[in-house]
Design goal:
The complex is a heterodimer of chains A (385) and B (198).
Chain A (H helix, E strand, L loop, with lengths): L15 E5 L3 E2 L5 E2 L2 E8 L9 E5 L26 E2 L4 E2 L4 E5 L14 E2 L4 E2 L9 H14 L7 E5 L1 H12 L7 E4 L7 H15 L17 H15 L2 H8 L17 H16 L2 H13 L10 H4 L7 E6 L7 H13 L4 E6 L13 H19 L4
Parallel strand pairs in A: 5-8, 5-11, 6-7, 11-12, 12-13, 13-14
Antiparallel strand pairs in A: 1-4, 2-3, 4-8, 9-10
Chain B lengths: L2 H9 L5 E5 L5 H10 L2 E6 L2 H10 L3 E3 L16 E5 L8 H11 L2 E7 L4 H10 L23 H11 L2 E8 L7 H5 L1 H4 L2 E7 L3
Parallel strand pairs in B: 1-2, 1-4, 2-3, 4-5
Antiparallel strand pairs in B: 5-7, 6-7
């Protein structure tokens, strides 16, 4: 481990690959005959195998949640602010597992993998995944790692949906769930934003109906637009305003359509970076998984009925300025849990950062979430907090 | 535990499902869960209180009491407790209705404005009482609906709510004959246990 890392970093981590040779039946009716999941672990599994915490990632997330892949990597994993020794998800106490979901583009089986039946890339024919499919595949990973029951399943945004699904599909395998900045189902507005993003990708002339790899092309423009649209929904009006205001890149208006305002420059940069590191088919698939998630759907819209199998206590966290998955969506989940008579705690954390707040340092969030995680650990060890 | 909470603790039966409005750091709920097998939820708006509750394993919801208890169904629990919150509510009377909607019985503790020290303060100094139970100045107090032991008893009569038990708490006069005989005068904190209907 390099001495240059902060003392509360997990340091250099090496991704691992788990291979699954038995078929996985999917919600869409198709079956994956075999698949691979790339994952990372931080901390040590205790002798009782009772201190495992599963981290579920969001739309553009992946397995690299904490630490660094190389000694000179500049940016740590996406949730490094919350995972590490002494941090909220304390790797001195917990054995933390973070994976890249099926259909992803960071090493797990996905659209860019070879379809064993055709010997060709899956491309757009890769099955559309659902949150439930992901959770089943994550359970397989838990089996392989010898984890019968997670101390906690934790996720933000789309990751929070997976945590919810875990508590419904495998109640006996989760002791706690933390559902952060999530929603029990997307609103029409959420789906609308996703559809604009998908259309941006699909209408890119380099998309080739999803077979862009065969044409040595990348639908960069579409991905860029999709990311720009998505990114707007991740920030709050306030955070954009305080960061960019109406600042210009130069000191005058140019009466043209090149980048003039700083916010334009920022969004274009975000879009450009994303378009070279993310796969278009994966993006389409992930947004579909978001749109489809609706556990109440199978229960005539009754979320409390959908949550009936839940046995573990919930922590639900929302953020005051999150308008993508607004606090009201989290309260819907809380109300349904109350109606179902389940144990639940809820806090609406004060933050100016919109949906992205779940990734960022915040004293209130850290105090509450940290308190919850310490109690989980105390339950495992039987000691008083 | 605070004196009023200790008294309330004794009033709560084993295995009760309760709701604690303004649960603070969750001391009462945690003690009830541990020793009386009580389950339930606390409602709190102070983030430090919420963090403390989570550390104790108490289910806590960030919820402003002025927004009502709409997320709880009728008879969601056996008992609702509210200590030191009645006087800060926009409509204490509406909250009493809400509490008796979600449970057949509730326990309410609040500072008794008719406590003799408060009366002396007002009578002789001619100024709004400031005391241990009412520590704020008139201009920055969160207490917008102060009331007396008698006032609350009257509200219960007006609403057709049965008073099952009543008590006063005070560090100096607790259990003292004066507070039992003249609770409105010698009780610093008023505690009522009321039941839905007559």
């Amino acid at each position: 481990m390099s001495a240059s890392f902060p003392s509360d970093s997990v340091g250099v981590v090496t991704p691992q690959i788990a291979t699954f040779e038995s078929p996985l039946a999917l919600a869409c009716g198709k079956t994956l005959e075999r698949f691979e999941l790339v994952y990372e672990t931080y901390g040590a599994l205790n002798a009782e195998r009772s201190n495992a915490v599963l981290i579920c990632h969001a739309l553009s997330g992946h397995h690299h949640a904490a630490g660094y892949h190389t000694a000179d990597e500049r940016k740590p994993g996406w949730w490094d602010a919350y995972i590490g020794p002494g941090k909220v998800i304390d790797t001195d106490r917990f054995f933390v597992i973070s994976l890249n979901n099926l259909g992803g583009c960071h090493g797990s089986t996905g659209p860019a993998s070879l379809n064993p039946q055709t010997g060709h890339q899956w491309g757009p024919t890769f099955p559309v995944m659902t949150v439930a499919d992901w959770v089943h595949s994550q359970a397989r990973l838990a089996d392989q790692l010898g984890i019968e029951r997670f101390a906690a399943v934790v996720g933000g945004s789309l990751g929070g949906m997976q945590a919810m699904q875990w508590s419904i599909a495998y109640p006996e395998r989760v002791a706690n769930v933390a559902v952060i900045a999530a929603t029990p189902r997307l609103s029409a507005q959420n789906i609308a934003f996703n559809e604009v993003a998908r259309q941006a990708i699909r209408s890119d002339s380099d998309f080739h109906d999803g077979w862009y790899a065969d044409h040595d092309a990348i639908p960069k423009l579409g991905l860029k637009l999709a990311r720009m649209i998505g990114h707007i929904t991740y920030l709050s009006e306030h955070s954009m305003g305080s960061r960019f205001g109406r600042d210009l890149r130069s000191d005058q208006l140019n009466f043209g359509y090149d980048v003039e305002f700083q916010v334009e420059s920022y969004l274009r940069h975000q879009g450009d970076t994303f378009s070279t590191r993310f796969d278009a088919n994966t993006y389409l698939l992930m947004t579909k998984a978001l749109d489809y998630f609706d556990p109440a759907g199978q229960h005539g819209g009754d979320l409390a009925a959908a949550l009936a199998p839940v046995t573990c206590p919930y922590l639900v966290v929302s953020f005051t300025t999150d308008w993508r998955f607004a606090p009201a969506r989290s309260r819907e989940l809380v109300s349904a849990l109350l109606r179902a008579g389940k144990a639940v705690s809820y806090i609406n954390v004060d933050s100016p950062h919109g949906h992205d707040a779940f990734l960022l340092p915040n004293d209130q969030y850290e105090a509450v979430f940290g308190s919850y995680m310490r109690r989980i650990h105390a339950d495992i060890t039987g000691e008083a907090v | 535990m605070r004196a009023d909470l200790e008294l309330i603790y004794d009033w709560i039966p084993d295995d009760a499902r309760i709701l604690d409005l303004g649960c603070g750091d969750g001391t009462l709920l945690a003690a009830l869960a541990r020793h009386k097998n009580v389950t339930g939820y606390g409602l709190e708006i102070d983030p430090e209180g919420i963090a403390a509750c989570l550390g104790r394993g108490v289910n806590v919801l960030e919820q402003n009491l002025d927004d009502g208890l709409g997320n709880f169904v009728d008879d969601a629990c056996d008992l609702v407790i509210m200590t030191q919150a009645l006087q800060v509510l926009r409509r204490p009377d509406a909250m009493l209705d809400e509490m008796l909607r979600v449970a057949p019985e509730c326990i309410i503790a609040f500072p008794n404005f008719a406590y003799w020290k408060h009366r002396l303060h007002l009578t002789f100094r001619g100024r709004m009482p400031v005391s241990r139970s009412l520590p704020h100045a008139w201009y920055d107090t969160p207490n917008i609906h102060l009331s007396t032991f008698q006032d609350f008893a009257q509200l219960c009569r007006d609403k057709g709510v049965t008073i099952v038990d009543e008590a006063v708490g005070s560090a100096e006069h607790e259990g003292h004959w004066t507070s039992r005989l003249w609770p409105n005068l010698f009780g610093e904190t008023a505690i009522f246990r009321v039941r839905r209907g007559r």
